[in-house]
Amino acid sequence: MSDLQTHSASHTILTGDRPTGQLHLGHYIGSLRQRVALQDLYPQFVLIADLQGLTDNGSNPQKISHNIFEVMADYLAVGIDPAKTTICLQSALPALAELTMLYMNIVSVARVERNPTVKAEIAQKGFSRTLPTGFLVYPISQAADITAFKADRVPVGDDQLPMLEQTNEIVHKMNSLLPEPTLVPCQAMLSAVSRLPGIDGNAKMSKSLGNTLTLGASADDISKAVHAMYTDPNHLRVSDPGQIEGNVVFTYLDAFHPDAAQVAAMKEHYQRGGLGDRQCKQELEACLQALLEPIRERRLQFSADKAALIEILQAGTEKAREVTQQTLAEVKRGLGLPVM
Ligand code: ATP
Ligand code: MG
Q: Which atom of ligand 1 is nearest to the CA of 205?
């Protein structure tokens, strides 16, 4: 039995990212920051979901393989510590694919088609009859990921809530088929900012929407992104009262500025009139520069040593293999399938 299985802590954390590009501010505020705190409290697994990344990039596998190491550099740069968090690779854990196959038999097509996040993504990507079957069922593979680790807490953005709901349905159905409950239901851990809008003000910052500010963004990228942000279109003169609702600059100040009282005073001043967009943007730029500069520097150092990244991923994946194979064996045995 591994150290992780004998650990007496009361929660197990599993979360992950698709290696479809560099991680961005949405990941940082929605999930990465929580992971850095959680790794000191509980056993934590972080899965690089390369198979899931391929579900809408099947013809461009190089994009996914390249980004595995970009995402690793992001993890280490924000402070995910491989001595505390097990970082592992989905495609190197065959138990996850096998559990997916087993779970696909207990989920109807109607149920996967009803998942609102998947529905929105299908529309966004313009899939109709060209929809890859793998993409439609990726929530089932995500259920396999979570349950294989027997994770009960999942720090994610709010786009993932339908995935966790579907996971719990699978857990209950599968447990009812097994002689004893084997799979563990899970709960989302949402951060205070569970859906950061894109720098274009679009509903969600996403790698695939091209509206991100990445964790490795240069000082110039940060400056340009902040200066291009929409504010209140009716706030024409500095003296005019301005609106903070739907104003991306204030959404970001709320999310990233370290001094909440200062932001509250700025909001009040802006709404009253007399505070210019330029000054708000300067304040936002300064706080994003201060946040991202050290991350960018650490990121560069970690990216320069690919051999070290491979070693960390290999060690984490070996540990994860043991845990996930164990769950698969329990499920197979429970279903009466020979475990050979
Ligand atoms: P893709 O466009 O390829 O789906 P993505 O930017 O949506 O990429 P994912 O790898 O799908 O990123 O998401 C990884 C994790 O980060 C998930 O838990 C997701 O909820 C969270 N996350 C992603 N974008 C945001 C965001 N804008 N705000 C808060 N959390 C986010
Ligand atoms: Mg996504």
A: 27
